[in-house]
Specification:
elongated, binds adenosine-5'-diphosphate, five-stranded mixed beta sheet, Heat Shock Protein 90, Beta-Lactamase
């Protein structure tokens, strides 16, 4: 091989090696760029999934319209609440902002508007905000719509207003009579009326002040129950003994109305966890109502017995009865079927709502069976001590917090039974079998 040939072969080989190197370099660079692009795409996809998951988890409806007014996205909650989400923002304003003035406000150039949209029995607060899309430097504006279900808040607000109006009305009625009777006495009564007349006026003033006192004390009791501030002293109690003593205490009242009032214990009653004063209040309210709303000469029977793991007291009368359509409302605050009758007997319209709240404090319930003209049967059912202990043990196994007075009384009994004094060892880790065993040994 001569020198020229060697040079040519060397040149060819060098060129080939250079080309391979360039090709390999190019291949490497492309792969790195592709990997980078893939990473960016994956990151964007991941962020998108994340933001969609966040949107889906919100209990707030979110709808977004782009700067071209077309729908960008809407989360599941918005679709459930609004059932139809228009494709364009002007259409959205037309559908959901016409009656509440939001559309007009947007047309006037407001950036942040809100209004209430009512659909069937639900109310929604819709808030629309103009938002810059495409970064801080962007000049393009889209719209973010937030939809919030405010049905429960509105209902609460309505109830609060009704309650305040009722309280004011109830307080005003006796106050007005107190004022007018005392005015008449001051103006001319003392000089012109005889002693009997003056005494009658003072008696009326006194009766109305008693009514006001009763109303205020009922309101205070309800408010302390509402704020969980009511003081209860939970003890093991024999409910039939409470029912018997209240019946005996109210015998003179029934006798005055020539009514027959009797108490019968139908079986053996297990003990319950209860606050004696609260239980007396429940039963005296029910029996007093039976006396008030049963005509003279009527019959009122009180029965006490037990069911599987509950004890009950039934108050049965043969009075005017209550139509089934009022069976739920009757327990609402200030609800009365017959306002004049109730006021005549000094009723406040709060008795049955107090009865229900106090029954719930004992983990119990109240049932009513009645029809107009067929008398009433009110039945208060309270769980036995054993049932409360079983439920509390299940809660302890499941590590649930026990936050009611009866539950805490049962918890204390279980703790004393297990002789656990150290707070750090309470609640103990229990299995269901161990809980059953404890319950059996405690019975
Ligand atoms: P009140 O102070 O008016 O008695 P309650 O809350 O105790 O308030 O009772 C609410 C209403 O339920 C009463 O006004 C009355 O119309 C009706 N009611 C309660 N108990 C009886 C009953 N045993 N028989 C007929 N109606 C009753």
């Amino acid at each position: 091989m001569n020198t020229a040939e060697i040079i040519v072969i060397t040149a060819i080989l060098t060129t080939a090696i250079c080309m391979i190197a360039v090709f390999a370099w190019e291949h490497f660079r492309r792969r790195t760029r592709d990997d980078h692009v893939m990473n960016v795409i994956n990151q964007v996809r991941h962020e998108r999934f994340e933001s969609q998951a966040i949107l889906a988890a919100l209990d707030l409806g979110i709808v977004a319209y782009g700067s071209d007014d077309h729908l960008l996205t809407a989360n599941e909650m918005a679709r459930t609440m609004l059932n139809n989400i228009p494709e364009t923002f002007p259409q959205f304003c037309q559908d959901y902002g016409e009656e509440n003035g939001m559309r007009a406000s947007i047309l006037l150039g407001n950036d942040n508007v809100s209004g209430v949209y009512v659909s069937g029995d639900r109310s929604y607060r819709i808030t629309i905000q103009s938002q810059k899309l495409g970064g801080i430097a962007s000049r393009r504006y889209g719209h973010i719509v937030m939809v919030q279900d405010i049905t429960a808040q509105e209902k609460e607000e309505r109830r609060r207003k009704e309650f305040v109006a009722n309280v004011s009305h109830e307080l005003k009625t006796p106050l007005t009579t107190i004022k007018s009777w005392s005015e008449s006495l001051l103006d001319w009564g003392v000089d012109e009326k005889d002693t009997a007349g003056i005494k009658a006026d003072i008696q009326r003033i006194y009766d109305d002040s008693l009514r006001m006192e009763q109303l205020v004390s009922d309101l205070l009791l309800l408010s302390s129950i509402d704020s969980h501030g009511v003081h209860v002293d939970i003890q093991p109690i024999n409910l039939d003994q409470v029912a018997r003593s209240i019946t005996e205490r109210l015998l003179p009242q029934a006798k005055e109305r020539k009514q027959e009032l009797s108490f019968t214990r139908l079986g053996k009653l297990p003990l319950i966890y209860g606050d004696r004063v609260a239980l007396e209040r429940i039963l005296s309210n029910l029996i007093t109502n039976a006396i008030k709303y049963t005509p003279e000469g009527g019959k009122i029977s009180i029965y006490a017995n037990s069911l599987i793991d509950e004890v009950y007291v039934k108050v049965v009368d043969n009075g005017e009865g209550i139509k089934s359509e009022y069976h739920e409302e009757i327990f609402s605050r200030f609800f009365r079927l017959d306002t004049t009758g109730s006021r005549m007997y000094g009723g406040t319209g709060l008795g049955l709502s107090i009865v229900r709240e106090l029954t719930h404090l004992h983990r119990g319930r109240i049932e009513l069976k009645s029809e107009a003209g067929e008398g009433c049967e009110f039945m208060v059912l309270i769980p036995s001590m054993m049932k409360v202990r079983r439920d509390v043990l299940i809660d302890l196994v499941e590590r649930n917090v026990i936050d009611d007075a009866c539950g805490r009384a049962a918890e204390n009994d279980i703790r004393s039974f297990l002789a656990i004094k150290d707070d750090r060892k309470w609640p103990p880790p229990l299995t269901m079998n161990e809980a059953e065993l404890i319950l059996k040994k405690m019975s």
